[in-house]
Amino acid sequence: MHVQYVAVCDHVLVGADGKPSLIGVFSDIQAMQVPVTLPRVAFAARILLTTEETGKTYKVDLVITDPKGNEIARPSGEIGVPPAPAGVDSLAIDLPMLLDMFGLPEFGRYTFMLEIDGEPKAGVQIAVRQGTGQLA
Description:
InterPro entries: DUF6941. Pfam families: DUF6941. By secondary structure, the protein is mainly β. It has one domain (about 1-130): Sandwich (Immunoglobulin-like), CATH 2.60.40.1930. It contains no helices and 11 strands. The strands form 3 sheets. Strands 4, 6, 7, 8, 10 and 11 form a 6-stranded mixed sheet that branches. It has a 3-stranded antiparallel sheet with strand order 1-5-9, with no helix packed on it. A hairpin with a 2-residue loop joins β10 (about 110-115) and β11 (about 120-130).
C-alpha cells in the first residue's frame, strides 16, 4: 500500500468518471481571532494498492490533532476494495472526506493523519495564524 497524496482543501468534487477535483488546496489560514469555524474543510487522499491488497475491507480513520497534540476529531469508516481485474497490477482508491462547520479552537499547527487499519500512513498539516486585518 502506497499513499500517493494527501491534501486539505476547501472542497473535493468527484466527477462521473471517478476523478477527484481538489478545489482550494491550502496549508495556512489567517484569522483575526480564535476559535474560528470553517464552513467546510475537505481532506483528500489517494492510495495505491497492489493486487494482493485488493479484494479486502480496510478501516480508515482521519485523526485530527490540535497544536498541543490533542485529538479534536476522528472521522472514520470502512472501504471495501474490489479485487483487481485480470491483467491489472494495482488499483488507485480515492478517499475524499468532507467536514462541515469545522472548528479550530486556537492558533497553531493542526495535523490531519490518515490511518489505515490503525497504522499511520500519511499526514498533512495546516497552520492557523493571527491576521492583522490589513491587506498587503
